[in-house]
């Protein structure tokens, strides 16, 4: 019998997650060779010395005796009820514990929700730039990603008028990522209200990715989408990974609100899918109540003088000093989406630049096109490192960009 190459499923065609793709694999090879790589491709607080609050660790330890068996497929009641209480504090009063699902991070719940929702060929409106898991999960579940513009000259805010023109009879849902990854934009009440009206007018499910909900800077205000979207189903996604610096706990949740009665068949489908994977990580769920009800240590970190605030400022200052770079200052999250002046480097390509930066300077960034943009002149960095590290990173970036500009100049003169 001939030996055949084992190919992946055709379901993976078109699925990309370059944040952990070719560049990340090359970075691992360099580290095995003994090089120290500064990895700015992923928002991983623990990698940069941020600790999960001690009270959350204690909550897990004290409840380990109750975490050895499977729990309800939706999650333990104290964790789900804590999410309900948070929703009520924000003015969302129709969510009960039965409308909350705990998952192994928000990533799993995005997949479950889209699997329960989509038929083959259904469309999901997704921002560009996006967090690529949304596109991947849509594709894997038979859907088609339709990108709506978030122009840089509008502060990477959604173009609400353009979005409504993209709605078709096959459109099932709209994704809103606020505060935004990768751009750091924080949407105004007016913008969110416009998005909510589109969802309500066309009967779309609102998928609100709010994992960075408390991570805002200066005068930026986070507005929960569920407070504005009442006449259609709203799914609010959040978790412990970012605000509570507990990525490894793998605990996220989705809370449903709005048109719940009309959504009962869909919610039963969600319950079935949750049951098929038995339950999510039980020990980590015991930290949810303490996290949501305790002291919000993210607030001083994001305030002037706080480490996240100062690191963000270091990025803004470094870009201001650069000959080649520009950035819309991030108003939330833990990223900056940085543009390169193509007048100075006409043939700039984000993937080639990222590989050159990694090979030469051992700095790993995420190319902007990884976030499903139609342009290739941006890259994303996390703002988690301290100020000194970020200053050094941008010195190395400037060196590589200077080389690329010189190469472009030589080619132009030939």
Offer a quick outline of the entry.
By secondary structure, the chain is an alpha/beta fold.
Characterise this structure.
The protein has 414 residues and is α/β, with parallel strands linked by helices. The chain has 2 domains: 10-51 and 300-413, Aspartate Aminotransferase, domain 1 (Alpha-Beta Complex), CATH 3.90.1150; 66-290, Aspartate Aminotransferase, domain 2 (3-Layer(aba) Sandwich), CATH 3.40.640. 37% of the residues lie in helices and 15% in strands. It has helices at residues 22-32, 54-62, 77-89, 105-117, 132-140, 160-164, 189-202, 264-276, 282-285, 288-293, 298-301, 307-321, 350-361, 387-413, and strands at 38-39, 100-103, 123-128, 144-149, 171-177, 205-209, 233-239, 252-258, 325-327, 335-340, 363-364, 366-367, 378-382. The strands form 3 sheets. It has a 7-stranded mixed beta sheet with strand order 2-8-7-6-5-3-4. The chain has a 4-stranded antiparallel beta sheet with strand order 9-10-13-12. Strand 3, helix 5 and strand 4 (144-149) form a beta-alpha-beta unit. The protein is globular and about 65 Å long. The model has no long low-confidence stretch (mean pLDDT 95).
């Amino acid at each position: 019998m001939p030996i055949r190459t084992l190919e992946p499923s055709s379901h993976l065609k078109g699925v990309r997650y370059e944040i952990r793709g070719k560049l990340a694999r090359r970075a691992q090879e360099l580290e095995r060779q003994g090089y120290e790589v500064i990895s700015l491709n992923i928002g991983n607080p623990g990698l940069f010395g941020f600790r999960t609050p001690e009270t959350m660790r204690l909550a897990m330890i004290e409840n380990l005796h109750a975490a050895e068996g499977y729990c309800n497929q939706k999650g333990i009641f104290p964790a789900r009820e804590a999410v309900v209480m948070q929703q009520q504090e924000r003015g969302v009063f129709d969510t009960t514990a039965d409308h909350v699902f705990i998952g192994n991070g928000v990533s799993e719940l995005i997949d479950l929700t889209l699997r329960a929702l989509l038929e083959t060929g259904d469309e999901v409106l997704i921002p560009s730039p996006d967090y690529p898991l949304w596109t991947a999960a849509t594709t894997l579940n038979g859907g088609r990603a339709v990108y709506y513009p978030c122009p840089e000259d509008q502060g990477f805010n959604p173009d609400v008028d353009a979005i409504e023109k993209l709605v078709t009879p096959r459109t099932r849902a709209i994704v809103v990522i606020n505060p935004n990854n990768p751009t750091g934009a924080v949407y105004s009440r007016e913008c969110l209200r416009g998005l909510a009206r589109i969802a309500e007018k066309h009967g779309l499910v609102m998928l609100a990715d709010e994992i960075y909900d408390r991570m805002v800077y200066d005068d930026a205000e986070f507005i929960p989408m569920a407070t504005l979207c009442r006449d259609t189903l709203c799914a609010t996604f959040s978790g412990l990974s970012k605000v509570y610096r507990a990525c490894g706990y793998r605990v996220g949740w989705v809370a449903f609100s709005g048109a719940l009665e009309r959504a009962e068949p869909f919610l039963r489908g969600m319950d079935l899918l949750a049951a098929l994977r038995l339950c999510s990580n039980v020990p980590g769920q015991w930290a949810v109540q303490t996290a949501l009800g305790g002291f919000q240590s993210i607030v001083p970190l994001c305030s002037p003088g706080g480490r996240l605030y100062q690191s963000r400022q270091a990025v803004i200052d470094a870009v201001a000093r650069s000959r080649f770079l520009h950035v819309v200052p991030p108003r939330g999250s833990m990223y900056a989406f940085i543009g390169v002046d193509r007048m100075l480097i006409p043939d700039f390509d984000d993937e080639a630049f990222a590989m050159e930066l990694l090979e030469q300077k051992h700095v790993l960034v995420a190319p902007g096109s990884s976030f499903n943009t139609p342009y290739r002149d941006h890259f994303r960095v996390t703002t988690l490192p301290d100020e000194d590290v970020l200053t050094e990173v941008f010195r190395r970036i400037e060196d590589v960009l200077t080389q690329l500009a010189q190469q472009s100049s030589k080619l132009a003169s030939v």
